[in-house]
Design brief:
about 5% strand; HD domain-containing protein; HD_domain; mainly alpha; 4 strands; HD/PDEase_dom; binds fe (ii) ion
Amino acid sequence: MTHTTTTNHWTLPEPPPSRTDIPVPDEEQCLALWDRFEMLDNIRRHSTCVADVATFLAQKAKDQGHDVDVQLVRASALLHDIAKTYAILHGGNHSQLGGAWMQEVTGNPVLSSGVTHHVYWPFAIDLENHFPQLAVLYADKRVRHDTVVSIADRFEDLIERYGSTEYIRRRIQATMDQALEVETAFTRFIKVDLNEHTFDCGRME
Ligand SMILES: [Fe+2]
């Protein structure tokens, strides 16, 4: 079992492990939710690429005998930025808002917690129990706009775009450190060197 612990996670109760008795929206239903929440075209392209990376992780894990629901992972990734359009127009935290909306419309707590926690995972990095959420988080960290990049390149871009103060730069650095920790955990879990991997939705720059 791959189980490492972040140094700065909070002592919150963890989300429940995956359940198989709650329906998961299929591809068509996810795309209908994009329409309903008026997702912008560039965010649709980004979400498709993130979903392709997350699906790769899920399928590899399943092929190796792990109990992973590939469609649950894909749906959570397709919907991870569902509240981005709203947040751009009206403000607010897009991950928390999106997570709340997706809990309301899908009723699936694992799917929705993948949305809520796609920026930073405040719990232990435990792929046995929280594969879907960590797959969404990691995939998002490997996609800049709609192109697959390394974690280092993705965060260089984030610091350039958002790192206006020392505090923000420190938060971005902590998020990058976690992303690298998650990458190491996935690399061990599915036995693929993910840092070198280009997946199918883009090319390494
Ligand atoms: Fe996001």
